[in-house]
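FORM 7B: Structural annotation worksheet

SECTION A. Query
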Amino acid sequence: MDFRIISLPPFTAATSGPDPDMDFSPEGTLGKFNAYFSAITPSPRDSFMPRDFLFFNQEKQGLEWWYALEEGLPDGGFDRVAFDGGIYLTYVYWDHDEDTNQKLYNEALEYIQSSGVFELDQRPGHYAMGHIITPPEAIQALGNGMMEAFVPIKLKPTQP
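SECTION B. Predicted structure
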């Protein structure tokens, strides 16, 4: 597998907060958060980067969703969090194909370990995340979308 190494800038995000029930129904925490940010149309200037990221919050043991806010964008009454940015290894797979996701994640870990250059950078608020990269109209036509996974990494310290 070929992986991409990218940088995400720091940003402020609205957060669903961790949901241990992982409830995407319209009444659930994640469903309400999805409805909030799905109604937002980013300005053309801000539509080039992914804006929403879904991850498992290890400390609070729940699925959490963030939406990167543009300056002046309302948070919909959701809490805000600051993300410090970082370097990420990315790969793509069909959404809901957890077998392929796990296989690619394991390959990513092997790549990171054998690179001699990178190491994992998982810490509170800095976990592996996912983002659907397929436009909604293509998802409707295809019946599924592609998920891009983001694995946090950092450069290994250099030896003197």
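SECTION C. Observations
The chain is about 20% helix and 35% strand. The longest strand covers residues 146-155.

SECTION D. Sign-off
Analyst initials: ____
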